Amino acid sequence: MTRGVRRVTGLLALAVPGGFFVFFSLLSRTFDYPAIMDEPAATVLVRVAEGGNGLVALWGGATAAALLLVPLVTLLHRVLSPDGPAWLTFATTAGVLAAVFTIVDLGQWVFVVPGLAEAWAAADASAPTRAAVIVTFDAFHAWVGMLIGLVLATLFSGIWTVLTGLAMRSARPFRPWVGNIGVGAGAVLLASVLQPGGFRVWALLNTVGFGLWSVWLVLAGIQLWRYEGDPDLD
Question: What's the pLDDT band for 231 if we cut at 50, 70, 90?
Fold first, then answer.
């Protein structure tokens, strides 16, 4: 494995959680996300219409961070594969699926919801039109936001994180304790999918899980940059 591949992988491991942190922090401040999702659909659509292109750009940035997950997952496979276990391919497949589901979830706020918000907020929008918009938005929220975003994306993220963390514990670029953080982060994410104890417990587990996930990737990225490698192999 060349130093260049390790450096690119390390850069992506820093960029993905960094991008999520920046854009979701801005979405929390300007759009009150995710708390706003407890509001009626009409309230959400009005806020989206008021946010305009600036809000769409923030969602686009979060989606771009999710897009970077695909090369990160595949390059981490390359880094780990020389010493990796036989099931590493399964872990990588789970990671790619997690990235795809996350992209679909976030992409609705770029390509679907703004159009619905515009139709809702139009001055000449009739009551039947607004009713149809609400039904469409609720359907996307249930199937894309909840099933694909909160369940499938989190499930496959947890699987990838646990298995990749296990592989990291015996891989030369990483310290074993970095792998352990990944295993712990993935376990918390998987627990959040079960939604034990209602919404508040789920929200806590999900927040802690993705917080640990971000720390894990940042630490992995730093170690990939610092690792000098074996000159006989590079």
Answer: very low
Q: Is the pTM of this model over 0.85?
A: yes
Q: Rounded CA gap, 128 and 57, in Å?
A: 30
3-state secondary structure the chain: CCHHHHHHHHHHHHHHHHHHHHHHHHHHHHHCCCHHHHCCHHHHHHHHHHHHHHHHHHHHHHHHHHHCHHHHHHHHHHHHCCCCCCCHHHHHHHHHHHHHHHHHHHHHHHHCHHHHHHHHHCCCCCHHHHHHHHHHHHHHHHHHHHHHHHHHHHHHHHHHHHHHHHHHCCCCCCCHHHHHHHHHHHHHHHHHHCCCCCHHHHHHHHHHHHHHHHHHHHHHHHHHHHCCCCCCCC
Neighbours of 160 (CB within 10 A): 27
Neighbours of 212 (CB within 10 A): 20
Q: At what angle do helices 154-168 and 69-80 cross, to 10 degrees?
A: 30
Q: Are 17 and 218 in contact (CB under 8 A)?
A: yes
**Amino acid letter, 61:** G
How far are the Cα atoms of 2, 195, 221 from residue 9, in angstroms, in the given order? 11, 33, 7
Token duo for residue 30: 């300007």
Per-residue pLDDT of 160-212, as tens digits, reads 999 999 999 988 889 999 999 999 999 999 998 887 566 677 778 888 999 99
Instruction: Give the pair of three-digit tokens for residue 62.
Output: 């979060």
pLDDT of 89 over the 50 cut: yes
